[in-house]
Fold:
Amino acid sequence: MIPLRLLLQFVHAVLASVLLFACIVDSACCADDGFQSLFNGKDLTGWEGPDGAWTVAEGAIKCTGRKDGGRNWLIWRGGDVEDFELRLKVRFTSGNSGVQVRSEEKADFQVSGYQVEVASSDKMGLWHHSLSPEKYRSHLATAGQKGAISESGDKTAEQFGDPATVQSAFIDGEWNEMTIIARGTKLVQIVNGVVLAELVDLDAKYARRTGVLAFQDHGKGTVAEFKDILLKRRVSDAGTLIFEDSFEREMLGDRWQVPIKFFSIRNGRLLGQEDPARGHGAVTRAVVPFRNAVIEFAFRFTDGKSFNLVINDKACKSVHAGHICRVSFSPTRVRIADDKEGFMKNEVFAIRQDKARRAEVQQLLNGRDVIIPNKLAAGQWHRATVTIADDTMSVRVDGESIGSLTSSGIAHPTKTDFGFTVIGHEIEFDDVRLSNVNAAAAD
Structure:
């Protein structure tokens, strides 16, 4: 019989090995998910603020809230940030603080721009403009609101939730998980998994697309703490944003062509609806010339069957309708296709119309498309990223790699437009962006 003492030592050693392995795996996952840690948990390396106003205690950045001092900010010195997801933990005790994003640094650690309020729970859910240049910029969106600022500075707000209900997600005196997302003209704040407020800012005078990250100390006894600060930049530094649309308007306008109806805007989203009588899916296109690009968009299946993201060159006469390449999405699969050398090539397209020769089509399509099983829940929003880098097109959905296709037609040097073809009654789109990139930086 094994002595109990030796048995316990053995069990302890096994558990320690398991925990060590779990830590290694967890660290590897964190290192590979694209997030960068902005705080080492020990000191203010990488951050800068006025002497004596900020400190590190028990693994967290803490503002001292000197009663003899006014408002000041602790600024992250890692450079300006454009589109991103920021995750951190926040604990509020007293006073008034905030997380600053896409902001402008003034003299003496003063920062002007977008700020998410960090205060007592009944004041949470506020997007405002710190050091506000004009009164209308002081409250941009409040708890439970989807706020919108027009190019002329007019404000509107859609109340998507009861203010007290969403504010109750934040717990005073406890550590709370906060996520701030900036994508295009849209800013979102989430606390403990609950969306507190959203903002779309088109203001021609004051809207900002890039700027510093910082924490605010409002002085007068403010006590707020921040830790586990992680940043994920959403667009490669090599990319140049050349098109975006968040559909915060009533009419589609001339940004999108609609050669085959129906496309419209409903509740700040692009809505595609096929007319079955036409015998073809609803089609919309945005005229944006590019060669290599990252195309991002949100989508939601309601009762539509499928849709295509289609990239064209209207001057290319060797293919039907100028179709160069596409990605087809349905609730059960994703198809990536080289149209130029495959399905839409004039010779192949002609064979497809002859029922007697359709058996030849699959042979001609060998290596020109790939079909990947993938489940996409209906009624939920998903985020797609399609990257075109010379002869390779790759797809990610909700941050996960779905697959890629390498085929010569994808490398066609000119693309004149891109857009969506909707099959079925109704599919929604939002936050469409196209960034022009160098092939080497498009991975």
Summary: The two ends are 59 Å apart (CA to CA). Residues 298 and 383 are 4 Å apart (CA to CA). The first strand starts at residue 36 and ends at 37. The chain has a mean pLDDT of 86.
